[in-house]
Structure formats: structure tokens, C-alpha cells
Specification:
alpha+beta; wza like fold; 2 domains; five-stranded mixed beta sheet; 10 helices; 26% strand; globular
Length: 355
């Protein structure tokens, strides 16, 4: 069993190949099961949950959403324009001024440095936007100047793969990161004297408040191209072992992500494993425990978690989401496709809670 804590979620990623080649690379692993299950299974969505109280029953069973559509919404557009990132190597050319040409690397702080202009923030900018920012920074020193930014080496498209893989760590893509591309390069875990197996499921974390659970084997066996879901840079893929028990800790904690459960795990201990609360959680922090299998939630205070008597009454269940909202929120409404690490292709719920 591989147990991996998200002590520090580094935002990292590796040279990619096209989606068709990655699917072909895994073809021997699932060809037999694909032939047996060539038809896409019927999918249904769980009803909406009105949680104006912590554990309210479903209020509107008519509100449904196609789970596959949720994954499509999570996936970035195929033609999304590239944005510069940390580590990218770029060349800046100036029309009619070859003496000003500069070859630069975007620093860890997302900035480049030019003579006279000094530091210029380009992280997250498209190439035309970066060109405009450079011209603006130099406008006090040059008139009628035009700049063009070219990316000579792509290194910013990083994702991090953790859990039950043979080579956990960062994967760097020269193109758009994809799920199968990341898993292929990280190596799939193998049993003793057994070939590598496709993970039944995996979680994709994005930032501190988004996580979706992908039923990977089901997607592959049904021939769905969403198995090779496009990712965003800095996404974190977590592949649990079949025997692993864990919860997801999101929101205002230092290191959001998956935290393995033991028989002695407590809410306070799990929050400590996630690095503790941030200042944004406030002095009277509230904590919401969401059970994605039922759509129910419980709202507790951080003081309850620290109280020895009350803490014994808090039972953590594998797969639960522990969410710590920012202080001052009178109402937090959580969409399950953003928060649910056990989101499957057969369930979807919407959940809100008054804190």
C-alpha cells in the first residue's frame, strides 16, 4: 500500500505525446476488458441537496447534471492559448532593434528582467499580453517600440503525480498535460509477478478548493476519450491503492490534499497533517465534513475538534471531504464537482451549508 500525504503540493509537470499515442501505449492493459464492455454504461446523477441545515435531506430531486458533462467542464479547452509560466525560456525581439533582443527565463517569481525596465511580471500572460507588458515597461525610454515574445522552451506545464505509481513526482509537458500522459510517464503500480494495472480511479486536485474523482478504468473500458482528460499546469493527480483509506482536506489549510486515515486518526490530527489552518480561517474557524456518498454534511467548530470530550464523538469516514472556509462567510455553497474526491460517473450532488 502506498500512502502519500500532500505535505507540500508542488505545482509541477513533462514532455507529452499526443492523446492518441498515450491511449495506444496503454492499449495492451485494457484491450480484453474493452472488448467485453464496448458499450458506454448508463449514467445517472444524484439529486440536488439543499443543505441550509448541516444534514438536510435532498430537496429537489429534479435537479440533475450529466456527470460526463462535469468532467468536460473541468477539462480546459483544446485550443486554449498558452500562457507563460515559471521556467519557460523566451526570446524577446524588437522590430528594427536587433540590439535589444533578449533571451530570458521566467523566474520562480513569475518575472523577467530587462535593462532599464527592470522586473516585469509575465507569469500567466499570453505571448501578446507579455509583449504589451514589455512595451509598456519600456515606453518611458523608447518611443514607437514593438516587441514580440517567442517561447523557445516550454517547461511551465507541470503536474504532480502522487500515490500508487512507480515513479511519483513531477511530470513536465512540452504541450498540454493530460491524465493518461501523466500516468504513463509516472509508471503504473504492479503487483508481485503481475503486469501493470490501470488504476480503477484517481483524484485530480486543482488549487485549494477543486477536486474531481475520475473513474479511470470505467472510462477506458467504455472507450471514452475523457480517460485522457486534459489538465491544467500545477494539477495534482492522486492514485490511491485499493486498500488505502483517506480523506481530502480542502479550503483554508496550509497543504490541501489527501490525508491517509489510520485507526487512531482524529479531526485535529488530520488538520495538523494538512499543515494546520491558515489565518484566513479566522479565530472561530468552522469545519464542514461532507460525505459524498450520501450528500450529507456536518458543521463543527475548530474548538470542538480540540475538545478531548467532543473530539471522541467525531468519527471520520474514508472518502469524506473536510472543508475549512474563509472566515466571515455567512453561507458557503459547495458544488460537488469541485469538492468531491470520490465523485464518480454515477453520482453528483450540490451542497450548501450555513456556518
Amino acid at each position: 500500500m502506498v500512502q502519500t500525504k500532500f505535505r507540500t503540493i508542488a505545482r509541477k509537470g513533462g514532455p507529452g505525446v499526443n492523446r492518441g499515442l498515450r491511449m495506444a501505449a496503454l492499449l495492451p492493459l485494457f484491450l480484453t476488458s474493452f472488448c467485453l464492455r464496448a458499450q458506454t454504461p448508463q449514467l445517472s446523477a444524484a439529486p440536488s441537496v439543499d443543505a441550509s441545515s448541516a444534514a438536510a435531506p435532498p430537496a429537489d430531486p429534479q435537479l440533475k447534471q450529466n456527470p460526463l458533462e462535469v468532467l468536460r467542464n473541468f477539462e480546459p479547452p483544446a485550443n486554449e492559448e498558452y500562457r507563460l509560466g515559471r521556467g519557460d525560456e523566451i526570446t524577446v525581439d524588437f522590430a528594427g532593434r536587433p540590439d535589444l533582443q533578449a533571451k530570458l527565463v521566467v523566474g520562480p517569481d513569475g518575472r523577467i528582467s530587462l535593462p532599464l525596465a527592470g522586473d516585469i511580471a509575465v507569469d500567466g500572460l499570453t505571448r501578446p499580453e507579455a509583449s504589451k507588458a514589455i512595451v509598456t515597461a519600456l515606453s518611458s525610454y523608447y518611443s514607437n517600440i514593438a516587441a514580440q515574445v517567442t517561447v523557445t522552451k516550454y517547461t511551465a506545464n507541470r503536474v504532480l503525480v502522487l500515490g500508487a505509481v512507480t515513479k511519483p513526482g513531477e511530470v513536465i509537458f512540452s504541450g498540454t498535460p493530460t491524465l493518461l500522459g501523466a500516468l504513463t510517464q509516472s509508471g503504473l503500480s504492479t503487483g508481485q509477478n503481475k503486469p501493470a494495472e490501470i488504476p480503477e480511479r484517481c483524484a485530480i486536485y486543482r488549487g485549494s478548493d477543486q477536486v474531481v474523482w475520475v473513474e479511470l478504468r470505467q472510462l477506458i473500458e467504455s472507450g471514452n476519450t475523457l480517460a485522457d482528460l486534459r489538465l491544467r499546469r500545477d494539477d495534482v493527480i492522486y492514485v490511491p491503492s485499493l486498500s488505502e483509506r483517506f480523506v481530502s482536506v480542502l479550503g483554508e489549510v496550509q497543504h490541501p490534499g489527501a490525508v491517509p486515515l489510520t485507526t487512531n486518526s482524529t479531526l485535529a490530527g488530520v488538520l495538523a497533517d494538512a499543515g494546520g489552518l491558515t489565518d484566513q480561517a479566522g479565530n472561530n474557524a468552522h469545519i464542514q465534513l461532507i460525505d459524498p456518498t450520501t450528500g450529507k454534511s456536518r458543521v463543527l467548530t475548530f474548538k470542538d475538534a480540540l475538545n478531548p470530550v467532543k473530539a471522541r464523538e467525531i468519527t471520520l469516514r474514508p472518502g469524506e471531504i473536510i472543508f475549512v472556509p474563509k472566515t466571515g462567510f455567512a453561507r458557503a455553497t459547495y458544488v460537488m464537482q469541485r469538492l468531491n474526491p470520490l465523485f464518480s460517473l454515477s453520482s453528483l450532488a450540490y451542497l450548501g451549508a450555513v456556518l
